[in-house]
Amino acid sequence: MSANAILNDPDFRKPGADRGLLGVLRHRHLLSLLLKKGISTRYHGSALGWVWSYIRPAAQFLMYYLVLGVLLGGRKDITLFPIYLFSGIVAVNLFSEVLRNTTSAITDNKSLVKKIYLPRALFPLAAVGVGLVHFLPQAILLLVVTLIFGWTFGWLAVGAFLAGILLILTFGLGLGFFFGAINVAYRDAKNFVDLILMFATWASPVLYSWELVYKHAPAWLYNLYMVNPVTAAVELFHTAFWVPIAPTDARPTDILLHTAIAAVIALGTLIIGQFTFRKLEGSFAQNL
């Protein structure tokens, strides 16, 4: 077959051509291999291994509960403050895990990126999968604790939980695509992400009630705060685990509207992040 015939063949694709997230669907086996690699190497050489997935959130909860709940009296202002606190911590931990993993996904796999061609989007997606797997022990622990306090199955709670996860994964992956692509050439991106994650817990209603922001912040700042996808996801986790056992009328006003806007922001972030990633991925091998 002549060269022109090959180029005109509808099945011909330029080597290294990438269809982004859609192209990943054609490489599910490679994605599963990268996911297994990430899971198996996460705690490689660690004596406690997967136990750390329980120790870290438990240590976070204990520290925040003692300082904010006991010393500063937060447990008096919020009914069942331990459940409120822990459900928020679990949500933010998932966001932190996804964003940190995806930001370093390309640099952590530089030997593969430099030697062979794989759709580059496979690496951030596998990193999201690893973060989700390591989120499961925390979610199970949260469910067990809430069951002890009287949580019962409800479709609203399940729907809110799944919606919160989807919102976090979409927003975290979008940011991860963006900062992960920039991080290949400029390692400052990872430091910038560390700053974002340092404020993530305080910038959402995890350690305090949304009412504090509503009462003390200007209306425009409150609305901006509530459409933050992480804030919306935390409130969805509260709806799933805290509200069923601590019924309260003190729910955010226009929560459905704020959540819908947050979902649009998360989707927009994913589109921008994917666009940036595809624009820069051609130079990954050279910059690594």
Automatic annotation (TrEMBL):
Pfam families: ABC2_membrane (PF01061). One of its GO terms (molecular function) is ABC-type transporter activity. One of its GO terms (biological process) is lipopolysaccharide transport. PROSITE patterns: ABC_TM2. Keywords: Cell inner membrane, Cell membrane, Membrane, Transmembrane, Transmembrane helix, Transport. Residues 48-280 form the ABC transmembrane type-2 domain. It is a multi-pass membrane protein. The chain crosses the membrane at residues 47-67, 79-100, 121-149, 155-180, 192-210, 222-243, 255-277. It is found in: Cell inner membrane; Cell membrane. GO terms for cellular component: plasma membrane. Belongs to the ABC-2 integral membrane protein family. This is Transport permease protein. It comes from Leucobacter komagatae.
